[in-house]
Amino acid sequence: MASITLRNIIKRYGHGPKANPVIHGVNAEIHDGEFVVIVGPSGCGKSTLLRMVAGLEEITGGTISIGERVVNNLEPAQRDIAMVFQNYALYPHMSVFDNMAYGLKIASVPRDEIKTRVDKAAKILELGHLLERKPRELSGGQRQRVAMGRAIVRQPQVFLFDEPLSNLDAKLRAQTRIEIQKLHRELGITSLFVTHDQVEAMTLAQRMIVMNAGNMEQFGTPEEVYHTP
Ligand code: ADP
Ligand code: ADP
């Protein structure tokens, strides 16, 4: 687990006079173990902010720290983060176990250790009885849980969620939301979750960052954010 510190974060896409900043100097400190939701309308910069924390997008100005480390110049794999995306492509020809194990195999984690980690994640996500199945033999909800399992087995300091619920139907969305809450209760991993959906934000957030047009307009608990006059 680790805190995430954003200091005066600026982002401009491209160069030259036409390159308007899309993030205008965001400052925020996300505490160790906290679940923070970034919410705001489409195009306000939520995804850009998250991708900068992940290392998938260059930072134009400011510093991002994860724990004690400034990560500005670190590759994604060095940042101790795991991401859960909206489009969770599972490998169709691989079993659930192999889908979860794949990243660890690539990283040369020893076999026994891989088995221990996958079994632990499968237990948390109630996938233990499905480890030999192929993705096509799973329900949508089960597939989504395998995608989360892939992130968990990395044992990251930080989880980054990029609108992971937005392609799901209402029932599955509610179910997966509960799954994510349970995950956070059990593992307590510092989490940053991006959504444009206010209800989703309120339900999941311990605190929420409200973005608008590249600015952080509010940062507080759902009560604080919705009860300010
Ligand atoms: P959100 O996630 O809130 O919908 P984004 O972070 O995707 O917002 O986008 C913020 C702004 O940056 C938008 O104006 C968008 O058009 C612009 N933008 C996003 N990605 C790029 C890119 N690769 N090149 C240029 N502009 C981009
Ligand atoms: P792929 O087959 O898509 O390349 P890998 O598991 O081989 O996936 O990972 C490739 C690189 O991307 C590695 O450096 C790994 O650390 C990083 N990576 C893959 N998935 C994630 C994730 N969910 N979160 C963070 N980093 C990831």
From TrEMBL:
The keyword Lipid biosynthesis does not apply. One of its GO terms (biological process) is glycerophosphodiester transmembrane transport. Keywords: ATP-binding, Cell inner membrane, Cell membrane, Membrane, Nucleotide-binding, Sugar transport, Translocase, Transport. Residues 4-229 form the ABC transporter domain. Coiled coil: none annotated. The keyword Oxidoreductase does not apply. It comes from the Bacteria. GO terms for molecular function: ABC-type transporter activity; ATP binding; ATP hydrolysis activity. One of its GO terms (cellular component) is ATP-binding cassette (ABC) transporter complex, substrate-binding subunit-containing. This is sn-glycerol 3-phosphate transport system ATP-binding protein. It comes from Acidovorax soli. The chain holds residues 1 to 229 of 334 of the full protein.
